[in-house]
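Residues determine shape. Take a concrete instance:
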Amino acid sequence: MKLSRFLFCRIPLAFVFVWVAASFAPGRSQGTGAGAPEDQLRVRVISPGQEPRRPMRFQFAVGTPIASKTEVTMKMGGNMGAAGQMPAMALPKVSSISEVAVTGVGPDRVADVSARLGQIRLGDNLLAGGAGEPNPLESLMPGFNEDLRWSYRQTARGMVFDFSAKLPEGVDPGLGQQIKQMQSGVQDASVVFPEEALGRGAKWEVTFPESDTRGVVTRKTVIYSLKEFNDEGATVEVGLRENAGDQKVGNLPGLPAGMSARLESLKLVASGEIRVQWTSPVPSGYLSGRSEQVVHLNAGPELGGQPIEMAVNLDLETRFSTIDSLEARESAGLPARPSRINLAEFVNTQFSSMVRTDEGTYEFESPLKTGEGVEFEVAGLVQLAGLGGAPGATGRLPDRVSGIQLERKCKRIHFLHAAGPGGRASDGTRIGSYVVRYADGETIEIPIVYGEDLRSWWVFPGEPPEATRASVSWTTQSAGTPVRLFSHVWENPNPNRSVASVDVVGRMARQGLFLAGITVE
């Protein structure tokens, strides 16, 4: 292959890999100078839109990591020096997966965000993220087989800043520079809102300061149009323009030794639709556009001193979405994400009827987070009868509650519960059970044993405070008496089979049963 053809194939593909990596990187650092990050932008409202109008602000919530998938399809064409016009060719689809979580929110409503790379695929081939797998990117970006993590901050108006990457120990430091060249991806996919209140149809322009983007200094302007909004989030149409002038290109991946590069011009025009949720830093939607760049390559004496002018056109479409299913997370090399099950339709007893306080009605704050980091959605208590026959707050208590739908594969199930009325039981007494029903109809019964999986809702004098297979996850005072709930985890012996539902069975001992929450992992 002639040098010109070799370079046309290799260097644009290197640009592509940097572009693709930008799809999962979290944004470019705007520095930490004086003033709020938005002060470094020029924001102009073109039209405030229809009434009613409201300020558009993120309300980030600290919580479970969100997995995000990005898919990029590309078609490349152009020409290179004496080689002339090169035929347009479609490149294999590139997908990347990352996991993003808000780890803290300051009083100024600025969120601290952390992320890690799950994997990169070229077509059906795993490029990075799989331990022990061959990695074609290794020569371009050493260290991509490692566990890559990064962090950044995001304001309530959507501005991303203070990017930093934590490289795995022993990784080539040059990877850090490569990552810094990838930081504009999610900023391209994010939405920066103005200070003013907006309504449907609003339009505004944001001009970003000059910044190092994909190895060259560029200037970017984005025009946003507000399509829809509600209390959950907003849908925004995006028009993006990015330009770069004549300059030397540094750290171009794939460039042979002895060759330097100078960019004559770069122009990127893209448009799309972005959907944001007010509580999440992870957007969804798509961007499609065209990048045109002209690069001059100067070969050293060892390559014959041949100057080459290369013009490359890339037609790109980027789609990004969240990943929810267990199967998708596992195939992406991401840990299972716990899912809180809403028991509201089964609740028959409210905390306000069980907890008496000096201040009046007791309100339970949900979700409840245990010391182990597991969260439960708590809408009240599902109270089952014991042999003691004590009536519940709403009349006769059921012996069994059936059909709590899970409909998913899982590795473990967490139960938040306690023994109900009937007095103190002897350790080892079975007071109820959970019946796990798989999608194929097979069932497994999980005994609920006093002293092992739970203890009484009320704390009895002289009774051990803990259970042997469960921990106290919530406690308060009711009329001067401590009350509590225990969390117990069941390990699923069949994690590759879908669990359809769970039944709760009581009336096995004098004591009843309180179930407050179920979380599936």
Confidence is low (pLDDT under 50) at residues 1-35, 180-184, 391-395. The longest strand covers residues 84-105. Helices lie at 3-24, 174-180, 185-189, 326-331, 351-354.
